[in-house]
């Protein structure tokens, strides 16, 4: 039998055993709340990294078009080139910092890929300087394509890192997964739409008709862009999607449609002469027009994700505070209960046991201490004290009888 020699230990073990399930449940719920807080903090970091990577990719992609436009339209394109390089370096550094701060297992490899692509691009800057040093009519954009493609490799590395962060978010939360789907579709639309601009730029600059290969490539990009527009419309039409997000997506897709109409009008003019159909700067402006609303729509989806992670973190923190409060209350209740058990049951029983031991040893002078409460234990203590008092009276009576017997014996001896 457990604790057969100590009622105090037995009572303590009983209290621990009876309260252990409650403490275990509260501990598990508290652990779950802490885990939710950490998870949402990690998701928020991934969303911020995703944002930084995408925005940086968009900026450097637009910047490379701006550099080529500067080579076509500016007598001195060096300031434009240097400004783009300085800005892109700062943006890439900030994006990589966000990436390395995020809790993403493969972040080191992704950051290294971005750095390698950046070094490859910087090795091609001499091509830009060489073309910028020529008189503007003698410049050839074909000579800058290795640099142009190298910038594309940086964007690809940024996009790959963004996709990794996006996938990590998708796996954690269904609500965030839906918003990620909208973000990804919008960004794909932006990327494929931009490929149309790159495909048409040489022909629009020369005024010559599109080659069959260019027509095929342009058609593929247009078809993919149209498909993504329809996909986006269906995604934001789902129940529960924020109205503000749906409005931004609608504005972005409408801007793309308007740019398509303008492109088609320009393509219809090709083959009529040998001069440019549109100035390089105007073509860049036309192409870049949808980028702003698309980026705004993407940023809004990321903002919605941060709102969700913040709300979930707050709810988890409230649960943690509640469970912690209940845990402290239970600890206090257990301490008070144990104090009461010791005061009303354990200590009186121990005291009575000690009193019985004294009485068995013949010590009847010390009274049995009174119990703190007039309950069953108190009644037992009072009965034991009454028993002691009776024993004292019996002892006194026996002592008197012994004294009387001694007197009687002595008297008989004297008279005998």
Low-confidence stretches: none
* Total beta strands: 0
Largest sheet: none
Shape: rod-shaped
Percent of residues in helices comes to: over 70%
State the end-to-end distance.
66 Å
The DSSP helix count reads 11
N to C succession of SSEs: HHHHHHHHHHH
Multimeric state of these chains?
Answer: single chain
Pairing-aware structural class of the strands and helices?
mainly alpha
Share in β-strands:
under 5%
Radius of gyration: 44 Å
Protein described:
This protein is rod-shaped. With 416 residues, the protein is mainly alpha-helical. Helix 1 runs antiparallel to helix 5 (145-172), helix 1 (7-73) packs antiparallel against helix 9 (280-288) and helix 6 runs antiparallel to helix 10 (291-360). Helix content is 83%, strand content 0%.
Please outline what is shown here.
With 416 residues, the protein is mainly α. The chain has helices at residues 7-73, 78-101, 107-122, 125-132, 145-172, 174-206, 212-236, 243-267, 280-288, 291-360, 376-415.
Give a quick set of tags describing it.
single chain; 416 residues; mainly alpha; rod-shaped
Strand-helix topology:
Blueprint: H1 7-73, H2 78-101, H3 107-122, H4 125-132, H5 145-172, H6 174-206, H7 212-236, H8 243-267, H9 280-288, H10 291-360, H11 376-415
């Amino acid at each position: 039998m457990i604790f057969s020699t100590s009622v105090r230990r037995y009572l303590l073990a009983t209290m621990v055993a009876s309260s252990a399930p409650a403490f275990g449940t509260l501990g598990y719920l508290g652990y779950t709340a802490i885990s939710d807080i950490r998870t949402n903090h990690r998701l928020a970091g991934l969303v911020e990294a995703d944002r930084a990577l995408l925005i940086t990719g968009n900026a450097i992609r637009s910047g490379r078009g701006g550099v080529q436009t500067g080579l076509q339209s500016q007598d001195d394109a060096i300031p434009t080139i240097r400004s783009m390089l300085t800005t892109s370096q700062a943006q890439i550094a900030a994006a990589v910092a966000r990436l390395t701060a995020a809790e993403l297992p493969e972040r080191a490899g992704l950051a290294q890929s971005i750095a390698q692509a950046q070094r490859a691009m910087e090795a091609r800057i001499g091509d830009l300087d060489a073309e910028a040093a020529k008189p503007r009519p003698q410049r050839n954009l074909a000579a800058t394509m290795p640099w142009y493609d190298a910038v594309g490799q940086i964007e690809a590395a940024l996009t790959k890192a963004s996709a990794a962060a996006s996938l990590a978010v998708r796996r954690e939360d269904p609500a965030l997964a839906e918003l990620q789907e909208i973000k990804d579709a919008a960004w794909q639309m932006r990327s494929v739409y931009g490929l149309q601009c790159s495909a048409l730029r040489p022909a629009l600059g020369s005024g010559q008709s599109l080659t069959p290969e260019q027509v095929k490539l342009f058609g593929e990009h247009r078809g993919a862009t149209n498909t993504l527009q329809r996909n986006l419309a269906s995604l934001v039409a789902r129940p529960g999607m924020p109205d503000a997000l749906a409005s931004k997506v609608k504005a972005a897709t409408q801007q793309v449609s308007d740019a398509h109409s303008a492109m088609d009008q320009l393509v219809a003019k090709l083959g009529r002469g040998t001069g440019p159909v549109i100035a390089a700067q105007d073509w860049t402006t036309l192409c870049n027009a949808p980028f702003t609303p698309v980026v705004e729509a993407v940023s809004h989806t990321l903002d919605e994700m941060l709102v969700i992670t913040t709300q979930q973190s707050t709810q988890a923190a409230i649960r943690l505070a509640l469970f912690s409060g209940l845990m402290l209350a239970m600890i206090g209740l257990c301490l008070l209960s144990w104090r009461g058990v010791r005061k009303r049951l354990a200590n009186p029983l121990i005291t009575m046991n000690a009193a019985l031991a004294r009485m068995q040893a013949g010590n009847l002078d010390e009274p049995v201490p009174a119990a703190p409460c007039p309950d069953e234990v108190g009644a037992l203590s009072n009965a034991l004290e009454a028993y002691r008092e009776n024993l004292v009276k019996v002892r006194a009576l026996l002592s008197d009888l012994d004294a009387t017997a001694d007197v009687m014996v002595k008297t008989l001896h004297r008279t005998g």
